[in-house]
Structure prediction request, 419 residues.
Amino acid sequence: MPMSEAFRARLFSKLETVADHYGTPFHIYDETGLRETGRYLIDAFSKTESFREYFAVKALPNPRILEIMKDMGFGFDCSSIPELLLSRQIGARSEDIMFTSNNTSPAEFLVAAADGGCILNLDDISLVPKVPEMPELICFRYNPGPRRTGNDIIGNPIESKYGVSHDQLIGAYEAAAQRGAKRFGLHTMLVSNELNYEYMVQTAQMLMEQVEKIFKSLNITIEFINIGGGLGIPYKPEDDPLSVAAMAEVITKELKRFKEKQGYEPKLLLESGRYMAGPHGVLVVKAINHKDTYRKYIGVDACMSSLMRPAIYGAYHHIDVLGKDATSPVSPVDVVGSLCENNDKFAIQRLLPEIIEGDILIIHDTGAHGHSMGFNYNGRLRPKELLLRTDGTVELIRREETVEDHFATLNFEPDVFKP
Ligand SMILES: *Cc1c(COP(=O)(O)O)cnc(C)c1O
Prediction:
């Protein structure tokens, strides 16, 4: 099931007045749902000695949302400097932040080290000598290459630009230790939107094997393993949800088994973005045009600047029409935006109730990699973001972009140079 029945009940009764007050389009997020999923994750892993979710900031980089994550005790997985700065802006410091960059620049290392630093997660062995000052705690991202197949979305690890290769891993820890690192972690990220929990179990097992190997070779103790993000959500009504409880149970057992052999249990880190936030946001748009040519089209007041996933991944996002029964007379339509790209479609040949101009459409599961992935091609601007608080109030947490924002980089001091 996409969007939960509970979120639907909380939102739909007041959606018309919210849309009147703020104007469409907007993404709206559900604080209650975010907190329920957060608590569920914590409960699922409660039998491990130490578990922490590092919310993947790129999924939903809004300070009001990050504050909710921080309030639940979560850290932040950042893959760029702006994401890191946003996390620090809401008070995250040092080991609250995991900085997983790749192709990292010297300037990025400097910001990462400033202001209390972070957990630096290095993407390559060649970066060890490039870290300006080796921190006490260092982590490496591991790429197992042909040892794992990855899943369909993220692809084959051999073709992936990320991570330290299998044969370089020991050397990487050795080099970091020689430069003064004293504490160590191990990270990987191999799947995306995966609904089969076995993948994550295998990932945890794989990391534990590497931890043993690193200890045997170098006498280095890895204090945490980070199994990455990539936990999937059911975008389609017929998808079975990922069983996080089953996944956590098996991984917990594996950790206990590791402890029996090695004498300690490494901390378990997860950096989920989609699973945490995806189902707890929707994009609300209004039908503004109808077109009946070779196909029937419904034109809405948002476009792929608000949600890229259908266009770039062919992703399915479930759609409801406010106040209309999904089982009532249906006809296949393409739901389209106004960008000059024919892939600017939220749905293709979708069976929806009869839609008239002014109807409100709810596009599900936009809480992760929705607004944040939007772009400005064609001068199309990104919409506002709202938060439905647990107390029933609605808060504007990001205003919509304006034409002035869009032209801001055209305002500068003249600089003409004749080389
Ligand atoms: C994108 C990303 C994540 C989050 O992925 P989800 O699919 O949203 O869970 C976690 N870790 C890293 C390194 C990433 O790049």
Residues 224 and 267 are 4 Å apart (CA to CA). Residues 198-218 form the longest helix (21 residues). The domain at 31-277 is CATH 3.20.20.10 (TIM Barrel).
